[in-house]
Automatic annotation (TrEMBL):
PROSITE patterns to which the protein is assigned, alphabetical: PAL_HISTIDASE
Covalent cross-link site, 5-imidazolinone (Ala-Gly): C145-G147
Name of this chain's protein: Histidine ammonia-lyase
Cell compartments where the protein resides: Cytoplasm
EC class of the enzyme, as a word: lyase
Family: Belongs to the PAL/histidase family.
Pfam families tied to this protein: Lyase_aromatic
The enzyme's E.C. designation: 4.3.1.3
Modified residues (2,3-didehydroalanine (Ser)): S146
Gene name tied to this protein: hutH
Keyword Calcium: no
Main location: cytoplasm
Pathway: Amino-acid degradation; L-histidine degradation into L-glutamate; N-formimidoyl-L-glutamate from L-histidine: step 1/3
Length: 520
């Protein structure tokens, strides 16, 4: 199998598959077993549709309108109408990677053979993904229950050749024009198919998987910047000893401590905290407790990943076609499991951002930095150094604290009180995306400050004390990326933007791992 092709079977997909399709443009193929399962489930739905008894989603209205029986002459119209009416989103466009993730995840559920759609509907969705066509989805419209209804409806609308979509060249055009340009025939929906295309947790799950991928990198990056700060402050590496973390065996804590210890291996700067004019017995919490805080976040990531993997293994629809041929209503579309962990991650990310900012502030305060110049300025007073970089970082942390307020504790009844408790998981996912973006910027500011502090420390020392080889590798790679070092004041925003890109791209971890080997 080509590394740029993801093959969907009845068993589902992996997180790596989702990232590959969402961000790397991987092609999607549906295997023969899944196509057979789609056909078998469709036969069940067709048999039910031929019977006089009403079946929800097949021959009835939806939500609070499910009491009306719909005759065969109106069922195609019913399925078109649910897509058109539910494509009611408003606000800014949702990012391309999110839309591709949610489309792929809906296709993954279709391929399970539990939804009752025809194979050609699933194949059309794969064709749209492979053509690089991305439906226009809007920020607001999902309550995270009965699925991410409005976002998925905008995607289904594009399959019908209606609404707007972005082409592979980035231009937004009518979806029908884009389908025609790529030789894709719009689908004509039959019984249950409209409902099956929009009744899942795919948007919130897609954003969870994307966030987990980003946070994996950011937690490793934050361990690196914490180590650089500890080193620049002449702190003690002894608090990172594995025997100290073994007696409080939280896995994430041990992993973060080990990361920091490996970054600091060979440093001549650590351990001088008792040689100051005012000797320190121990370092401040933001330095000494870095593994405990980052480690707690890592364990939260692990829990969120478990939930995501369970959801990936799920076939979320209502009603569903069971293996014994029954078609049953259910509540599996409720987004509570995903919504909770999205909120948990926003809390953990806010706390990691907070401790990064406190370390940065310590580097800039001449009364707490143990010999570094005020604000790491070239000529303090004439130069302001990184004073306002910390202001920016503080503003980002403050927003992250607001974003940490849970969305999943809210619920607004909908559909005439038929849907009287909802998860708000989509909202939790949207604010987590903002929080992850902010966290990358916060880590970048600490990196910028810590590397400048290390430069100043080693240049002024005179005793030949050198930074750790891994620290030096990080600093050299940052400079090679165009981020300037210590010196007189200059236009700072481009440097901070470049440091942010350096962190997000994984260049920081790559530079350090070239010395340390793979970090957790």
């Amino acid at each position: 199998m080509d590394m740029h092709t993801v093959v969907l079977g009845t068993s589902g997909a992996t997180a790596e598959d989702v990232i590959a399709v969402a961000r790397q443009g991987a092609r999607v193929e549906i295997d023969a077993g899944a196509l057979d399962a789609l056909a078998a489930a469709r036969a069940v739905v067709d048999a039910l549709a031929a019977k006089p008894e009403p079946v929800y989603g097949v021959s009835t209205g939806f939500g609070a309108l499910a009491t009306r029986h719909i005759g065969q002459d109106l069922r195609a119209r019913l399925q078109r109408n649910i897509v058109r009416s539910h494509a009611a989103g408003m606000g800014p466009r949702v990012e391309r990677d999110v839309v591709r993730a949610l489309m792929f995840l809906r296709l993954k559920t279709l391929a399970s053979g539990r939804t009752g759609v025809r194979p050609e509907v699933a194949q059309t969705m794969a064709d749209v993904l492979n053509a690089g066509i991305t439906p226009v989805v809007h920020e607001y419209g999902s309550l995270g229950c009965s699925g991410d209804l409005a976002p998925l409806s905008h995607c289904a609308l594009a399959l019908m050749g209606e609404g707007d979509a972005e082409g592979p060249d980035g231009t937004v055009r009518p979806a029908g024009e884009l389908l025609a340009a790529h030789g894709i025939t719009p689908v004509e929906l039959r019984e249950k198919e409209g409902l099956a295309l929009l009744n899942g947790t795919d948007g919130m799950l897609g954003m969870l998987l994307l966030a987990l991928a980003d946070l994996d990198r950011l937690y490793t990056s934050a361990d690196i910047t914490a180590a650089l700060t500890l080193e620049a402050l002449l702190g003690s590496h002894r608090v990172l000893a594995p025997e100290l973390h073994a007696i409080r065996p939280h896995p994430g804590q041990g992993a973060s401590a080990d990361n920091m210890l490996r970054v600091l291996a060979g440093s001549a700067l650590t351990g001088h905290f008792q040689e100051d004019e005012a000797p320190r017995v121990q370092d401040a919490y933001s330095v000494r407790c870095a593994p405990q805080v980052a480690g707690a976040g890592r364990d939260t990531l692990a829990h969120a990943r478990t939930v995501a993997e369970r959801e990936l293994a799920s076939a979320v629809d209502n009603p569903v076609v069971l293996p014994d041929g029954r078609v049953e209503s259910n509540g599996n579309f409720h987004g509570a499991p995903v919504a909770y962990v999205l909120d948990f991650l926003a809390i953990a990310a806010a706390d990691l951002g907070s401790i990064c900012e406190r370390r940065t502030d310590r580097l800039l305060d001449k009364n707490r930095s143990h010999g570094l110049p005020a604000f790491l300025a070239d000529d303090p007073g004439v130069d302001s150094g990184l004073m306002i970089a910390q202001y920016t970082q503080a503003a980002l942390v403050s927003e992250m604290k607001r974003l940490a307020v849970p969305a999943s504790v809210d619920s607004i009844p909908s559909s005439a009180m038929q849907e009287d408790h909802v998860s708000m998981g989509w909202s939790a996912a949207r604010k987590l995306r903002t929080a992850v973006d902010n966290l990358a910027r916060i880590v970048a500011v600490e990196l910028y400050a810590a590397t400048r502090a290390l430069e100043l420390r080693t240049a002024a020392d005179g005793a030949g004390l050198e930074a750790a080889p891994a620290s030096r590798a990080a600093l050299d790679a940052l400079r090679a990326a165009g981020v300037a070092g210590a010196g007189p004041d200059r236009y700072l925003a481009p440097d901070l933007a470049a440091a942010d890109a350096f962190v997000r791209s994984g260049e920081l971890t790559a530079a350090v791992e070239a010395v340390t080997g793979p970090l957790a």
